[in-house]
Amino acid sequence: MPSGQRAQWKGFLKFGEVSCGVALYTAASTSERITFNTINKATGNRVNRIFIDSETEDPVPKEAQTKGFEIENGQYIIIDPEEVSAAIPESNKTLEIEAFIPCSDVDDVYFDKPYYLTPDKMGGDAFAALRDAMKKSMVAAIARTVLFRRMRTVLIRPHGKGLIASTLNYDYEVRSSEKAFEEMPKLKIQGEMLDLAKHIISTKKGEFDPATFDDRYEAALADLVKAKLEGKSLPKPKKVQVSKPNDLLAALRESAGMMKAAADKPKRTAANANAGTGRQRATRGAAAKSAASKAAPQRKAS
Fold first, then answer.
1. pLDDT band for position 295 (50/70/90)?
2. Given 23, 263, 270, 290, which residue has the most CB atoms within 10 angstroms?
3. For residue 130, which of 115, 146, 117 has the smallest C-alpha distance?
4. Chain centroid to CA 99: how far?
5. Does the domain at residues 9-29+88-173 carry the CATH identifier 2.40.290.10?
């Protein structure tokens, strides 16, 4: 069990006639992001959300609210919460593996949310046997169960000491790529332009390391809050210049030269890169905490 985390779901993982107790834990969270409240500009007070009737404009208390499906413009079928609950498939708390497939068979566009899948109390041997067999066979597992009041298809893959279970989008939820790209012009790039683009790619090859990625949006928000508290203004960002077709070849030539110069310079070590990222995170976190501590007395004063 991960320290300090509560399981999102507990049940059983079944493959063939073998089953073991498992638990799902959230693998990705947005709880560390900076959040804002909606404020009344005139008073500086926080705004509360109130539901009102679209026709009478009278407030509607929570106990008077229900669900409805629109059949025509302004015409609804009323559906009670009890009817919704009755329509939800019953959960048998079992992730039953239906098939083992090559890991590359599932297009990433179908991935929804990732969860860590760990053995729960008893059943560690069966869990480890499945994990190690999947690693050696280089396969993933397709399983189905009711998760969070919905029947979900889950892709299970070996991940470190445990497994990672990613809920999958249904086919009807994934939009057609053909429609997304149907208005793209048919262009065939070749000659020097293609060679320069390939050269730039070759000089920028690297490895995927999420520890070196920094959330610039969060950092910008922390800087903004800090600047507002100190009465400072932030510099305006420079506009991105989009390469025009007539200037594209010149831009590629310039980029190729810059890439070559960058490649000749000594590269930072992974330790230095991670240390830099750690300092950035620490700075952003300190700025956000400082902003929160300074903003609290200001709200009291108002």
1. very low
2. 23
3. 117
4. 26
5. yes
Mean predicted confidence (pLDDT) in 159-178: 91
Per-domain residue ranges of the chain = 9-29+88-173, 192-236+243-301
Give per-residue pLDDT as tens, 36-85.
Answer: 899 999 999 999 989 999 999 999 999 999 989 998 888 899 988 888 87
Q: pLDDT at residue 86 above 70?
A: yes
Bridge partners of 144? 96, 153
Q: Does the global pTM surpass 0.90? A: no
Residue 155, Cβ neighbours under 10 Å: how many? 21
H-helix segments, 11-170: 81-87, 124-137
Q: Which residues in the chain belong to E strands, given as ranges?
A: 9-15, 18-26, 67-72, 75-79, 94-102, 111-119, 139-147, 150-159, 162-168
